[in-house]
Amino acid sequence: MTQKSILVVEDNLETRELLSYNLKSAGYAVRLAADGVKALELASRAKPDLILLDVMLPDGLDGLEVCRRLKQDERTRSVPVIMLTALGDEVDRIVGLELGAEDYVAKPFSPRELLLRIKVVLRRAGVSAQDQTDGFSEGGLAIDFAAHSVLVDGTAVALTSTELKLLRELVRSRGRVLQRERLLDTVWDTDFDGTSRTVDTHMRRLRAKLGPYADWIETVRGAGYRFKPQQSPAK
Length: 235
Fold this sequence. Notes:
Layout: E1 5-9, H1 13-25, E2 29-33, H2 36-45, E3 50-54, H3 63-72, E4 81-86, H4 90-98, E5 103-107, H5 111-130, E6 135-138, E7 141-144, E8 149-152, E9 155-156, H6 161-172, E10 178-179, H7 180-188, H8 196-210, E11 217-220, E12 224-227
Helix pairs in contact: 2-3, 4-8, 6-7, 6-8
């Protein structure tokens, strides 16, 4: 089995060494960055399988901004990100998830819990990568989930990995209502409280990117969301 690589982005030397030790002991290949600039450089040079990203980073480029840039870059968009946040810092967690991070771990963290979350996120990412037949094409909307490709009337649209996962869940359940709680479980795989707002935020962004096909994602009041293609999208 190919060794999975993890990029650790953490400015505190003691924490960085602790993370490196535990990850290497668990069989992962580890690269280290102490700031956001170095993190972006390493991630684009040799794409890791997962990124552990601290929110509090020096030199004016914090973890949230690094996450945003990673998810906007075609080379690193599909790399899962786990944010490391201060205990009780709810705002950073919400923003991180909204930017496309797959999960978060609060400091001080349990190495055992962290390794479990990494394993879960990597497993989900692997399942998505192996889904070669998963796609959709109707009207002017064409989606190839395996290739991370979305075309709107022939124009390529850049989705974050989280937006693509949301769209995949909706398309797979075409015509059925998906509750926000289910989407949180399947897309973010976290027990984080109060993140129905996160689902709504991602849906707004996803609809904006789908342009004339935005209405194909319906809001079902008091229930959730449903993917329902229509004959004539609004132009």
